Amino acid sequence: MSRGLSVDPSDAVPLWKQIEENVRRLVASGALKPASVMPSVRDLARDLSINPATVTKGYQRLVDAGILVVRRGEGTFVAQKPPSLPRGEREKELEGGAMRYASLAVTLGAANEEAVEQVRGALKDLGKKKKDEDS
Amino acid sequence: MSANPSPAKTAAGASTAVVSVGSLVVRYGRDAKPTLEEISFSVPKGSVYALLGRNGAGKSSLVRCLLGQQKPTAGRCFLFGEDVWKRRARLMAKVGVVPEDPDAPPSMTARQLSAFCARIYPTWDAPAVEARLARFGVPAGTPYGNLSKGQRALVALALALASSPELLVLDDPTLGLDVVARRAFFEELVGELADRGTTVLLTSHDLTGVESMATHVGMLKGGRLILDEDLEALKSRFRRLRYANEATENPTRYGQELSDFDAVKVKVRGWGVEAVVSNYGDETFAKFAALEGVVDAEASALSLEEIFVAIAGEASPGRNA
Question: I want to staple B160 with a disulfide (CB 3.0 to 4.6 A). Which of A135, B45, B96, B126 is the partner?
């Protein structure tokens, strides 16, 4: 159930955020298909040996972002379609994500070209994975 | 070193605090150095509060005071807003405890222990004890004295949860447990948190387990609470910095370049300088990395264990002592 969803408690990134980012990545790469069922908070927390409140927080962010949907009594699912954000908000999200990545690259002492190259590579990887999953 | 125990946090939210400790002092003997000095903190409802400290830091005395087993020299401990020393019997009905070294009459079986407790606790759920023991694979009919250490800890957990406690106190519960028992212990704890949102106060040497489960961390050192903080906030402000130092002629020295940081620990290595800082921020770091003489600066995250070692771990007093 929690295939591909792993976390590292010793990382500086909070656990709920790791869950959020991992699910985003799995959805983006097609490893988690639209409308597929997510593990329950309890099951995922047990699998990962982490506090269930942490999973709840990560899921909640994904629900707020429109990546996951909760169907009462049935559970949590991957949304049918990628969320459509209002124009301004979409840009703000992209900008925020870019700033977070840029800060990381700077703290690791990466040169600008290297940082940009990594983004290109990551986008390519996601595209390739999605193709593999779809075929 | 400025490990501010964020005093604002202890005062706030006192109304929803399950545990609240105010200016607690414990001293054994009139002229002795206090074992606990002016300890104040609170455990918010629904949180998992990990109390850390090396052996002799005062954890056991604090836990005994919290459970009403010991009268503080000064200050008070409240559970659910009531003084635990005055209302011990009533308050303890709402608390489940797994002691550091669970003790029970060796001839009694887990089933007999459960039946015995059922007479004391009004909300005792004996079938739940049997179900948990079955899940753990611990025989309910074997005398306690014949069980392994791991099995005893799991029996203690099954008993502690049987009264559906509002507060669970775990005193280094996984110490000396094998991997399987430890895993079973944490799985059950996760289930309990998911189902009931129980408030947990735990002491532990197992910092990896704490890091996955805790929402708050308190750190005792030499009888003082040197840290009392949200785990996420704690981890976000600690970083290890590494850089080659070309500011001073002698590369084995470091100068003023770290002055914007609260450096908890600084070590000079062959290749440069390594420092642990407690007030990391992306902007402060960018400024620091751009300083003349600071070369190849890198910031990396610290695990809770590394943070613990950096502030409490060194046996010999460092430069900040």
Answer: B96
d(CA B143, CA B139): 9
Tell me the pairing of strands B17-26 and B74-79: antiparallel
- ∠ CA B158-B160-B165, nearest 5°, is 125
The rounded distance, in Å, linking the Cα atoms of B125 and B117 is 10
Count of CB contacts below 8 A, A vs B? 74
Domain boundaries for CATH 3.30.70.260 within chain B: 239-301
ipTM of the complex: 0.80
Q: Which CATH superfamily is domain B7-234 in?
A: P-loop containing nucleotide triphosphate hydrolases (3.40.50.300)
pLDDT of residue B249: 59
The token pair at B72 is 């503080």
φ, ψ for residue B44, nearest 5 deg: -65, 150
The conformation of residue B313, written as its DSSP 8-state character, comes to I
Which residue ranges form the domains of chain A, and what is each CATH number?
15-78 (1.10.10.10), 87-134 (no CATH)
The whole-model pTM stands at 0.83
Range of weakest confidence among A34-38, A82-86, B243-247: A82-86
Is B297 an interface residue toward A (CB < 8 Å)? Answer: yes
Nearest-CA residue of chain A relative to B49? A51
pLDDT tens for B44-74 read 999 999 999 888 888 989 999 999 999 999 9
- Whether the predicted pLDDT of A134 surpasses 80: no
